Amino acid sequence: MADVETRPDAAIEGADHDTQDLAVIGASNEVAPPAEKKVKKIIRRKKRPARPQIDPDLIKSEPPPQTGNVFNIWYNKWSGGDREDKYLSQTHAKGRCNVAQDTGYTRADSRPGSYFCLFFARGICPKGQDCDYLHRLPGIHDLFSPNVDCFGRDKFSDYRDDMGGVGSFTRQNRTIYVGRIHVTDDIEEIVARHFAEWGQVERTRVLNTRGVGFITYSNEANAQFAKEAMAHQSLDHEEVLNVRWATADPNPMAQKREARRIEEQAAEAIRKALPAEFVAEIEGKDPEARKRRKLESSYGLEGYEAPDEVHFARGPNAVNPRGREGYELEHEQRLMLEAAEAEFVAEAQAQEEQQAGGILSSSTLAALQAAQVSVASKPKAAVPSGPLVAYDSDDDSD
């Protein structure tokens, strides 16, 4: 019996495959099992809990210092008799939010539709992960009612006199006014760097000589968050910022730009609500739908393509058979209603004729009026005349 030649395992290497070892043992064609593949384990770190920003023992509920004679509950400050500069009387904020360190999950993450924490934005929330509000920045998917802000506070019909407070629900305000900025050579870079922490900035305008800036955010919720986060804060110097809502821009170009942006948002919302295939067909992005539309709108005529107002028309007289679906029954019902209405009007007219003419019908009365039949009346006796006409007696012999 001839000896069987044995050879070492053959290594087969591929460009995109793992190395496989094949071994032929004796006369039997047994193949060794492939080597075990190394599986990389992806360890995803869970979102960390929100940390308390300040110690709860340091929180003290103190009324604002008295600087006037009357306390205004609407503005939460004293008024009347105040003679000092209102800008110099502002005190620095007690804390500042650090998004990189303070962001984390809270109880509100398990409840959809939760609002953001106002004290977190101001940097003074002591609850941390036990807070009932969100401890993060607003995103594009965080949508709220136009009557409330991202913190759940009710808006008003008009702005305050000093353009502070929550704001108005009559206008979508994404621009905040920042005053009392320390004027330096790199003032624009400083303002852009500090206010970019609170969301995507669409446009920044800084008046260098006056220390005033206007920051427009892409999302209204980010503007609301930035207004509370930067109130009474300082940039690179020890100034105390005056952050308010910006008034409407009177520039016609800015108004047109804002109207165009609102239209784009409405169109994007409609795209999300409709099926993707339908949107692609309307916008002409689906080539198959385009070919199908060309065939359907030809209506058997070679080289003809009906326009949109004809192809998508709906009604009983639509050219497209699909557009007439559901209108046949409505057309028949309308005819039945018109016939019933005509019959009702005829009956009403007949009743009116009987009431007006009594026994005779209206046609008979019309014939009599045309014939102008006149009845001869009995002639009256002649009236005597004379001086003794007025004197009369009951006795005929006199």
Automatic annotation (TrEMBL):
<keyword id="KW-0747">Spliceosome</keyword>
<keyword id="KW-0507">mRNA processing</keyword>
<dbReference type="GO" id="GO:0071007">
    <property type="term" value="C:U2-type catalytic step 2 spliceosome"/>
</dbReference>
<protein>
    <recommendedName>
        <fullName>Pre-mRNA-splicing factor CWC2</fullName>
    </recommendedName>
</protein>
<dbReference type="GO" id="GO:0071006">
    <property type="term" value="C:U2-type catalytic step 1 spliceosome"/>
</dbReference>
<feature type="region of interest" description="Disordered">
    <location>
        <begin position="376"/>
        <end position="398"/>
    </location>
</feature>
<feature type="domain" description="RRM">
    <location>
        <begin position="174"/>
        <end position="248"/>
    </location>
</feature>
<dbReference type="GO" id="GO:0000974">
    <property type="term" value="C:Prp19 complex"/>
</dbReference>
<dbReference type="InterPro" id="IPR036855">
    <property type="entry name" value="Znf_CCCH_sf"/>
</dbReference>
<feature type="region of interest" description="Disordered">
    <location>
        <begin position="43"/>
        <end position="63"/>
    </location>
</feature>
<comment type="similarity">
    <text>Belongs to the RRM CWC2 family.</text>
</comment>
<keyword id="KW-0131">Cell cycle</keyword>
<keyword id="KW-0863">Zinc-finger</keyword>
<keyword id="KW-0862">Zinc</keyword>
<keyword id="KW-0479">Metal-binding</keyword>
<dbReference type="Pfam" id="PF16131">
    <property type="entry name" value="Torus"/>
</dbReference>
<dbReference type="GO" id="GO:0017070">
    <property type="term" value="F:U6 snRNA binding"/>
</dbReference>
<dbReference type="GO" id="GO:0008380">
    <property type="term" value="P:RNA splicing"/>
</dbReference>
<dbReference type="GO" id="GO:0008270">
    <property type="term" value="F:zinc ion binding"/>
</dbReference>
<feature type="region of interest" description="Disordered">
    <location>
        <begin position="1"/>
        <end position="20"/>
    </location>
</feature>
<keyword id="KW-0539">Nucleus</keyword>
<keyword id="KW-0508">mRNA splicing</keyword>
<dbReference type="InterPro" id="IPR000571">
    <property type="entry name" value="Znf_CCCH"/>
</dbReference>
<dbReference type="GO" id="GO:0036002">
    <property type="term" value="F:pre-mRNA binding"/>
</dbReference>
<dbReference type="InterPro" id="IPR039171">
    <property type="entry name" value="Cwc2/Slt11"/>
</dbReference>
<dbReference type="Pfam" id="PF00076">
    <property type="entry name" value="RRM_1"/>
</dbReference>
<dbReference type="GO" id="GO:0006397">
    <property type="term" value="P:mRNA processing"/>
</dbReference>
<feature type="domain" description="C3H1-type">
    <location>
        <begin position="111"/>
        <end position="138"/>
    </location>
</feature>
<comment type="function">
    <text>Involved in the first step of pre-mRNA splicing. Required for cell growth and cell cycle control. Plays a role in the levels of the U1, U4, U5 and U6 snRNAs and the maintenance of the U4/U6 snRNA complex. May provide the link between the 'nineteen complex' NTC spliceosome protein complex and the spliceosome through the U6 snRNA. Associates predominantly with U6 snRNAs in assembled active spliceosomes. Binds directly to the internal stem-loop (ISL) domain of the U6 snRNA and to the pre-mRNA intron near the 5' splice site during the activation and catalytic phases of the spliceosome cycle.</text>
</comment>
<dbReference type="InterPro" id="IPR012677">
    <property type="entry name" value="Nucleotide-bd_a/b_plait_sf"/>
</dbReference>
<dbReference type="InterPro" id="IPR034181">
    <property type="entry name" value="Cwc2_RRM"/>
</dbReference>
<dbReference type="InterPro" id="IPR035979">
    <property type="entry name" value="RBD_domain_sf"/>
</dbReference>
<feature type="zinc finger region" description="C3H1-type">
    <location>
        <begin position="111"/>
        <end position="138"/>
    </location>
</feature>
<dbReference type="InterPro" id="IPR032297">
    <property type="entry name" value="Torus"/>
</dbReference>
<dbReference type="InterPro" id="IPR000504">
    <property type="entry name" value="RRM_dom"/>
</dbReference>
<keyword id="KW-0694">RNA-binding</keyword>
